[in-house]
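BUG: 3D viewer hangs when loading the predicted structure for this chain

Environment: internal workstation, default settings.
Expected: structure renders.
Actual: progress bar stalls at 90%.

Input used:
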Amino acid sequence: MRRLAIAAIFALAAGPVLAQSPPDGTPTRVAGTIEKLEGQTLTVARPDGQKQSVTLTPDAKIFGAEKRKLTDVKPVDFVASGGVRGTDGKIHAVEVRIFPEELRGTGEGQRPWDVRPEGIMTNATVGTVSQTGDGA
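Structure tokens produced before the viewer hung:
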């Protein structure tokens, strides 16, 4: 079976797999590599080496990630940008994901991102795309 890498956010852009919710209803994020799918049970190998089983609902949707170039980002794309706050106070992106159109608006806004220390996730519609003189 082809192995798909699940990036940090399953329901968003590609994102974490949402495992069975605990009794309080709070979703649990599971990030890792899909090892197998048997019926409605997805087995994920987490980065810490542990295996996590996730029971999918009949209407679950799974989105994969594929490598893109910065030039693939266009105005009006809906994206997720995971970044860290630098010593200059600015947020520096460490990854950008282009959402499929059906996920437009998912998780819109900005919040802490637990994948990196001082991580910040921003999901938003791209206004303009520009490049600085140093190629960044």
